[in-house]
């Protein structure tokens, strides 16, 4: 007995393939630019985000990191709801919360912490999100982050942080000066 193929229900694989042909796909570079501009939400809402949530670019930036850094609160919330990792770090070891603290995006920081971003994480240079907020004068951010921090900092920590920052700047200026003079002779 032959089955009537024309009356059978299409397989799930065939349905998924057809849906993929209907839904616009973004190239990886376009996705990162869309996250940076805050225009990624329509794409994520109409596609399965599982394949995209953990993407990173050559610098280790995730879609969440770019959206957060540029202050796109609603996109950050959407990415977090879809499972993006609030504790991911870039290639230099900096967390999303560090970038948000540097930029002063308090509303975005609240979303990250609500999804368990680690306030006390330190990058390879020993800096925390609070250190970034202090360094760039984000007083509201400093007050907010201190509410969630488990570390006990003292005034010496700030002095050490500023000295590290100044020393790194001096090294950079010295390198640029030597390079402009053709190096040591």
TrEMBL record:
<keyword id="KW-0040">ANK repeat</keyword>
<dbReference type="InterPro" id="IPR002110">
    <property type="entry name" value="Ankyrin_rpt"/>
</dbReference>
<keyword id="KW-0677">Repeat</keyword>
<dbReference type="InterPro" id="IPR050776">
    <property type="entry name" value="Ank_Repeat/CDKN_Inhibitor"/>
</dbReference>
<protein>
    <submittedName>
        <fullName>Ankyrin repeat domain-containing protein</fullName>
    </submittedName>
</protein>
<dbReference type="InterPro" id="IPR036770">
    <property type="entry name" value="Ankyrin_rpt-contain_sf"/>
</dbReference>
<feature type="repeat" description="ANK">
    <location>
        <begin position="59"/>
        <end position="91"/>
    </location>
</feature>
<dbReference type="Pfam" id="PF12796">
    <property type="entry name" value="Ank_2"/>
</dbReference>
